[in-house]
Each structure stands twice: as C-alpha cells, then as structure tokens.
Amino acid sequence: MHNFPKELENKMLILEKGYAGEIEFDKFTSNLPSEYIILNDLLLEFKGHKFQVDSLIITPTSIHLYEVKNYEGDVLYKNRKLYNLHSKKEIPNPAFQVERSNSLLRQLLAHYSLPHADLYSHIVFVNPTFYMYHAPFEDPSFIFHYQIAKHFQQIQVATHSESSQLSKIAMTLSNHQLLDYPTHSTPDYKFESLKKGIRCLYCDSFQLSLSKFELRCELCCYSEHVKSALKRMVTEFALLFPKEKLTTNLFYEWCNSYKSKDSLQRYLSKYHPISGKGKATQYLVAEQTDKEFN
User: Fold this and answer.
1) Cα–Cα distance for residue pair 24/14, rounded to 1 Å
2) Residue 289 confidence (pLDDT) above 60
3) Helix 6-29 / helix 145-154 crossing angle, nearest 10 deg
4) Domain spans of the chain?
5) Is the separation of the CB atoms in 44 and 65 below 8 Å?
6) How far, in Å, CA of 22 to CA of 28, rounded?
7) What does the pLDDT look like over 39-63, one tens digit per residue?
8) What is the CATH number of domain 6-175?
9) What residues pair up with 49 in beta bridges, in sequence order?
10) N or C end of the chain: which has fewer CB within 10 A?
C-alpha cells in the first residue's frame, strides 16, 4: 500500500467512512413510495450562505432533512455536547450544522412561496455499534440504527398532494445546487503502489471466497453477484486512472488474478465496447452498459 501522510490518511478514512454511512442509509430509502422525491448530496446557497444536505426526502405532506453519521462506539450527550466515553474528548455535535441547514432551507423555500411549515430535521446514526447515553428528545431528532426502519414506515402517509407541487420543490432546489462542490486533497498514487484485488462491498475486506455466481466475504459473510463485483472494479479503475487504457492484462492485475484472463476478457467483451484489435485491444468504460442487470 502507498504510504500517505498521517493527516491525509485520516481525512481519507473519514471520507470513506462517511460514504459507507450514506450507502447504508440509501438501503432504507430504496423502498419508499415512488411518488416520494429523494435528493442526495445537496450543496445549496441562500443569500450568500452555503449549506450542505446529505439527503432530503419530499413526501406529499412534509419535507425531511437528513444528516447521516457513521459514528461508532459509546458517546455521552451532556449540555448539547458529545463526548467520547473512551477518550473523554469532545466530538462535534451534528445538531448545530443541521439546525443551520434547516433554517437556511426554510428561508429558501419561503422565498419562492413553497411549503416549508412541515420541514423536519433528523440526524441518522447508521452504525449499529454506536450508542449515545442521555440522548435527547428534541428537534433535530436523533435516529439510531434500530429506529431507522420504523422511522421510514412512520413518514409514509395515505394522503397525497399534487405531484406538480412536489416536483416544483425538487426543481427549485435542483436549480440552486452549486456546481463548485468542495473538493479534498487528492493523494499522490500510482497503479503499482495500490493493493490489488476485489474488496467486500460491505466491510472492505479482501478475504473473499468464490462460488459459481457469487463472491462471499469470509469476515462479514456479505455476498455479491460476480458481475456486480466486476462492474464495480471497472468503475473504480476508471475513476482512479481516467487516462489509462483498460486492457485484459491490466484488468487481470487490477483484480489480483481473480479467475482467469479468459473469463475476464469474456466479461469485458460482453459489457464494454471494444476499441482496437489484437494486442492493441482496449475496452471503453464510459459507454459501459447495464444489460447484465436487465
């Protein structure tokens, strides 16, 4: 593995952990009614004030703002502050950020004469290992892992409003989405310096066992369809090395000799357009199809 500066490595771990938390949150929202509108990763601005929203769900009767946290371990809530019980150090209370976002979003909706009275804020702790002592009952509400499924059952209502009104809210917010989303320092890395192989989608372990159609993690027992895992590997390669040409040999090395070159070549040939012939053959990632899932 490449040796990154400690500070940068910590930032990368925080970003990776946050992303994993958002993926876990998305699992709970995937079964909401089709008329509900879900907007993720919003960066908005009102009167010169920027604010971020992890997820916003617009229902026929209310709007729900979510801040997703992947905290773990034991935390004490005291006087609106959070303390790690192990280190005794104070950690950021996301309630302050959420209250600010709620206020600015409410003002933004009111500015365009859009419904905003039933705007609710929630801080969702998706990690089942996280526990908060003396958790408050207040707005924004704290929702813990065991409460998430019940929460989404409760926000589903029988009454419906005109879909045009929901779409108008979503369109207004989408039009205010800022394109200059804050970026983070990108570490200096090379293909040769990175650890190769297919990781578990759930826990990032490389300890996977292969059956005919599935990869199974030996640590967390998570299973993933082989085609899904290969598609993920292609996407990650293209993201990390946008200027590299994807060839069978390179993909074989990227997957750490997973299966055989022939099987990987068959996968690439089936789902990716081919450019060139013979040793010059490469596969076009940008035009990847999804027909394996149809």
Assistant:
1) 15
2) no
3) 40
4) 6-175, 191-293
5) no
6) 10
7) 998 999 998 899 999 999 999 888 9
8) 3.40.1350
9) 46
10) C
Bond before 242 cis per omega within 30 degrees: no
- Six-digit token pair at 155? 């926000």
> What would be the CATH architecture of the domain defined by 191-293?
Orthogonal Bundle (1.10)
The model's pTM is: 0.60
Angle between helix axes 94-111 and 163-175 (nearest 10 degrees) is 110
Structure tokens at 72: 């773990």
Give the pLDDT confidence of 150-198 residue by residue, as tens digits: 999 998 865 555 566 788 898 899 888 887 655 555 667 788 888 899 9
Structure tokens at 186: 């990108």
CB distance 258 to 242 below 8 Å? no
* Rounded alpha-carbon distances, angstroms, from residue 28 to 22, 33, 293: 10, 12, 21
Q: 206 to each of 53, 216, 231, how far by Cα in Å?
A: 32, 10, 17
Give the span between the Cα atoms of 113 and 121, in whole angstroms.
20
Q: Which of 160, 189, 159, 149 is nearest to 28 (CA)?
A: 149
Q: CA-CA-CA-CA torsion for 142, 147, 148, 151, nearest 10 degrees?
A: -90
Higher-pLDDT residue of 247, 288: 247
